[in-house]
Amino acid sequence: MEAVRTFLLAQPGVTEVHDLHVWPLSTQDTALTAHVVRPTSSSDANHFLKNLQHDLVHEFNIGHCTVQIEQDTAVAGHHGCCDAEEVAAATTSGKSL
User: Which is the CATH superfamily of the domain at 2-93?
Assistant: First the structure.
């Protein structure tokens, strides 16, 4: 799993990987889900995902992958659902996100 995490972190623009899960679907098929953080200005998401899928098959024999791209304004641990200002506001008001 660490080899896959290292591989994902080495991809263009990736600054963080979390919620990484890899598991067998059968004796020959493997699945992956992950959240990757990339810059907000990235306009090449489809190209990035296509290349990533190709590379995961050839490097790790992972044929079924679901990768969620999060913008780099997301706060770590909040899975891209909110930005730093929302977290700060919720924290000071006692609300949960």
Answer: Cation efflux protein, cytoplasmic domain (3.30.70.1350)
